[in-house]
Write a structure and sequence with these properties.
Radius of gyration: 18 Å
Largest sheet: 6 strands, mixed
Bound molecules: zinc ion
Helix content: 25-40%
Number of domains: 1
CATH superfamily: CNF1/YfiH-like putative cysteine hydrolases
CATH architecture: 4-Layer Sandwich
Distance between the termini: 31 Å
CATH class: Alpha Beta
Length: about 270
């Protein structure tokens, strides 16, 4: 099954398979990116290192990063990965730290840089990952926004940081939304529904992104991100949503809801050249 659509292309190269956003490919001389997918879920996983992995898992893991980087002409030694703690903390990466793990030392759910050859990486299994690129100021960001991150509006905080620290104009910023759980599968109970209702009723049209069915609620967290990003000045035509649900496509994309405790992780990477 090929997941290509009008927004992304599904690429097989070497032993890796990944999606790339057509809009970012127009800038392939200055920015490189990929979102890993694959049929063999045990093979292509990109686990975080914050829980120590068994040595053999660690090696397999790093080999996956390495081969995905090689297929994209990147040096895997330049990867820095958000350690993903469901915070709204976004770290400005100015150099690759000289330590054994690829994760940031501090809690981080977003990474940002204007430096070339630093590979910003995040991982997901249902959560939303967003790649940001400003082709004028040459700034990139990679943000992990699970439902807790969405409640904290971390995607908007990334735009704010791009404005404040790099003088970006939101009108220039391209935002790409990777595969994630979508409204079709993001079923929640009343406690989570109430948090979303209280936070986002200010947006109006709440029926557009929260649907009640038989005592359960289905929340469109991707749509919420799109709405708040537009309010932050991102142009509609610069929001590239792959429109792919991780649960609906569990044969090819890691999903916590579909895989359970033994879930694997996909990675999204972006690097300036
Ligand atoms: Zn779905």
């Amino acid at each position: 099954m090929d997941l290509s659509n009008n927004v992304v292309v599904d690429i097989n190269k070497g032993d890796q398979e990944f999606l790339q956003f057509k809009k970012l490919l127009k800038y392939s001389d200055i920015v490189t990116h990929a979102y890993s997918i694959g049929i063999d879920k045990n093979y292509r996983t990109f686990k975080a290192n914050k829980k120590p992995l068994l040595k053999e898992d660690y090696i397999k893991n790093m080999n996956n990063y390495k081969s995905l980087c090689e297929e994209n002409n990147l040096n895997y030694k330049n990867i820095i990965k958000a350690n993903q703690a469901h915070t709204d903390n976004i770290v400005n990466v100015t150099e690759i730290p000289d330590n054994k793990t690829i994760d940031t030392g501090e809690a981080s759910d977003g990474l940002i840089t204007n430096k070339k050859n630093i590979i910003l990486a995040t991982t997901n299994a249902d959560c939303i990952l967003l790649l940001f690129f400003d082709p004028k100021k040459l700034v990139i960001a990679n943000v992990h926004s699970g439902w807790k991150g969405t409640l904290q509006e971390i995607s908007v905080k990334a735009v704010d940081k791009m404005k404040k620290e790099f003088d970006c104009n939101p009108k220039d910023i391209i935002v790409c939304i990777c595969p994630s759980i979508r409204k079709c599968h993001f079923e929640v109970d009343e406690d989570v529904y109430t948090m979303f209702y209280n936070k986002f009723q200010k947006l109006g049209n709440i029926d557009e992104f929260i649907e009640e069915k038989q005592g359960k609620w289905y929340i469109d967290t991707v749509l919420i991100n799109k709405i708040i990003l537009k309010q932050a000045g991102i142009l509609e035509e610069n929001i590239e949503d792959c429109d792919i649900c991780s649960v609906c496509n569990k044969e090819k994309i890691h999903s916590y809801r579909a895989e359970g405790k033994e879930y694997g992780l996909a990675t999204a990477m972006i690097s300036l050249r």
